Structure to design on (122 residues):
């Protein structure tokens, strides 16, 4: 690869990058508050997607992929449900929290302050 064809570095401000949010599907909603979420896939490292994700105040249920993430802002909890051999866990979401989720985990997200995270997922 010649110097003129080498990739350029990438800089994204993960705290302020504008994300397009959409309503979470009604099948995922918990409670009466209409929750929205948005994401931006920044790129890939081998088979791993790297991106930014956010969720508004509210509660949803989800089925997870393999993922590491760091919370940039917001507050809430993620409940790991005791399904498919996973133990019940209560994980607090706060700025700086580094969390590992595994494929097949059934979760409930209860967000009290809009959450924004940077994730690595397969």
């Amino acid at each position: 690869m010649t110097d003129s064809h080498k990739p350029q570095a990438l800089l994204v401000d993960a705290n302020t990058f504008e994300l397009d949010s959409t309503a979470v599907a009604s099948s995922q909603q918990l409670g009466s508050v209409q929750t929205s979420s948005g994401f931006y896939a920044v790129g890939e490292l081998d088979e791993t997607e790297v991106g930014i994700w956010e969720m508004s105040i509210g509660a949803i249920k989800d089925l997870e992929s393999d993922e590491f993430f760091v919370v940039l802002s917001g507050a809430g909890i993620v409940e790991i449900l005791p399904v498919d051999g996973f133990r019940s866990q209560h994980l607090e979401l706060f700025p700086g929290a580094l969390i590992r989720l595994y494929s097949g985990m059934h979760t409930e997200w209860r967000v009290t302050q809009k959450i924004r995270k940077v994730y690595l997922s397969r």
Q: What stands out?
A: The first strand starts at residue 22 and ends at 23. The mean pLDDT is 96. The CA atoms of residues 71 and 97 lie 5 Å apart.
